[in-house]
């Protein structure tokens, strides 16, 4: 590259960063970069969820379809490939072949994308109240939910969907303020891309559009023009980033939409002592999981933020965008499993509404600052305390009320704890260990370990194993014989047990 080209590239990057941080004040910028560095420091410790390698496979088959028309894409046609395709393409660009390297690359990219959405939350809340503290608080709430914090490293479906949702909210907020076409197009494009991850992403433009008509009552000509453009841009974006739809846009779109509403997941989730099948979850499933796994102070601020005291039209829209999907999930008996991760996209709205609650005491500066500092400090403590299994977090009320949570709730449903257990078992050993576990989670987690560590672990049939590992999930237990030599207890409750076979 010429010197002129290099200078031009640095200039473009500099301008891009300035635009990205526009409206973000210096203290918030410093906090943002500290958060990113904090996350990158923790990143190498996370395990590999059960379906991450399947997700990577989606990227492979979509790349093969785009480059040479390979029809293996049909095997993974119900999952949008935007992150998977992009990350696999980068693997090829950098010549990455080792499993540990490409898994760390995926975690790095996903965390950066999810972290970027903090800026969207900050901008929205500052635009609402003009308060740096309130905006900082809402962004902190958004960033420090322990479960979501962990998922932001490896959950390329729900966390990425949530991050795109946050940026779509920002563009919607700007458009409602200035009616500019640029922000409107950004909102529609992001809505389309979101919908490639989960077709339910179409909820946002539909509900936002209906709320806009009801709350803002625009002139019918304006409504017609924006409605027509919105439908067209959203669907074109969906089509552009979803290669399976290229084969037969109308028919394949109908198939994806129908399958999403009746997704054939045949198992269930242990919830408050009851094993609930995904097709028959009761009305209280989603609200209970959200409340039980969210820090208690977050819940209090959210409840206060939901009380419609002097709501603006924008706040009413947020209120509707939060409650309507919950009500639809309840009344349509939408299939749900693995906690509430399919509804993480509601968390940006929750975070914004907690900012609304903090703003209620804006005239009492000392109290406002103390509440913000205490709430975020406790959340950060929970994130650090449970590392790297923050996804097993339950709020402060449940451990004191229900001993032995693993007997009543789904904990490490993705088997991320296998990595921590294996690393502990081979620590200080020069010889190899013979290990058995009944699911693929153990093999997946070996892939992110170093080559030297992997060489010390032999996966063998149960009868030949020295150690038996049970990742506790659901109501059934394997009942392995032997002496317990190690257990994982990220928040004081057991998520995994290692037995030494007699």
Task: Quickly describe the structure.
61% of the residues lie in helices and 6% in strands. By secondary structure, the chain is an alpha/beta fold.
Explain what you see.
With 502 residues, the chain is an alpha/beta fold. The chain has two domains: 117-385, no CATH class; 417-500, no CATH class. The protein is built from 22 helices and seven strands. It has helices at 3-20, 26-42, 52-68, 82-94, 99-129, 132-143, 146-154, 158-178, 181-197, 203-216, 220-240, 243-247, 249-261, 285-292, 296-306, 313-331, 347-359, 365-385, 397-401, 417-426, 441-446, 451-455; strands at residues 268-271, 274-277, 433-436, 457-459, 467-471, 483-488, 496-500. The strands form two sheets. The protein has a five-stranded mixed beta sheet with strand order 4-3-5-7-6. Strands 1-2 form a two-stranded antiparallel ribbon. The longest helix has 31 residues, at 99-129.
- SSE run: HHHHHHHHHHHHHEEHHHHHHHEHHEEEE
Radius of gyration based on Cα positions: 23 Å
Helix content: 55-70%
The fraction of residues assigned to DSSP E strands is 5-15%
Number of helices: 22
Largest sheet: 5 strands, mixed
Please tell me the overall pLDDT: 91
Number of separate strands: 7
Distance between the termini: 64 Å
């Amino acid at each position: 590259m010429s010197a002129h080209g290099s200078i031009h590239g640095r200039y473009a990057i500099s301008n891009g960063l300035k635009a990205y941080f526009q409206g973000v004040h210096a203290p918030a910028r410093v906090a943002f970069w500290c958060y990113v560095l904090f996350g990158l420091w923790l990143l190498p410790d996370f395990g590999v969820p059960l379906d991450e390698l399947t997700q990577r496979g989606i990227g492979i088959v979509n790349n093969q379809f785009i480059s040479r028309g390979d029809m293996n894409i049909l095997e993974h046609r119900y999952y949008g490939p935007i992150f998977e395709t992009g990350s696999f393409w980068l693997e090829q660009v950098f010549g990455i072949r080792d499993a540990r390297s490409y898994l760390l690359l995926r975690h790095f990219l996903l965390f950066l994308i999810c972290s970027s959405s903090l800026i969207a939350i900050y901008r929205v809340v500052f635009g609402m109240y003009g308060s740096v503290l309130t905006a900082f608080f809402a962004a902190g709430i958004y960033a420090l939910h322990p479960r979501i914090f962990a998922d932001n490293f490896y959950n390329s479906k729900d966390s990425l969907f949530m991050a795109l949702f946050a940026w779509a909210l920002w563009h919607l907020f700007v458009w409602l303020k200035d009616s500019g076409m640029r922000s409107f197009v950004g909102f529609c494009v992001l809505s389309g891309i979101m919908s490639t991850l989960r077709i339910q992403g179409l909820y946002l433009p539909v509900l936002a559009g209906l709320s806009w008509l009801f709350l803002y009552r625009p002139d019918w000509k304006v409504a017609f023009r924006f409605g027509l453009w919105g439908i067209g841009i959203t669907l074109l974006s969906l089509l552009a980033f979803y290669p399976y739809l290229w084969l037969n846009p109308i028919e394949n779109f109908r198939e994806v939409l129908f399958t999403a509403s009746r997704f054939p997941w045949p198992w269930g989730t242990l919830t408050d002592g009851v094993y609930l099948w995904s097709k028959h979850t009761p009305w209280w499933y989603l609200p209970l999981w959200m409340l039980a796994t969210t820090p208690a102070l977050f819940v209090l601020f959210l409840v206060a933020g939901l009380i419609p005291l002097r709501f603006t039209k924008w706040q009413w829209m947020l209120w509707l965008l939060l409650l309507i999907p919950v009500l639809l999930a309840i009344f349509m008996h939408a299939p749900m499993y693995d906690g509430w991760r399919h509804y993480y996209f509601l968390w940006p709205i929750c975070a914004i509404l907690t900012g609304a609650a903090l703003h209620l005491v804006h005239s009492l500066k000392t109290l406002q600052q103390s509440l913000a500092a205490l709430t975020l400090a406790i959340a950060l403590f929970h994130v650090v305390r449970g590392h790297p299994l923050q996804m097993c977090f339950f709020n402060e009320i449940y451990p004191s009320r229900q001993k032995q949570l693993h007997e009543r709730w789904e904990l490490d449903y993705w088997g991320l704890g296998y990595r921590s257990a294996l690393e502990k078992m081979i620590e200080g050993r020069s010889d190899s260990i013979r290990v058995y576990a009944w699911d693929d989670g153990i093999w997946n987690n070996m892939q992110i370990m170093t080559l030297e560590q992997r060489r010390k672990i032999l996966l063998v049939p149960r009868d030949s194993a020295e150690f038996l590992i049970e990742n506790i999930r659901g109501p059934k237990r394997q009942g392995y014989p032997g002496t317990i030599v190690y257990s994982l207890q990220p928040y004081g409750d057991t998520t995994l047990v290692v037995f030494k076979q007699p």
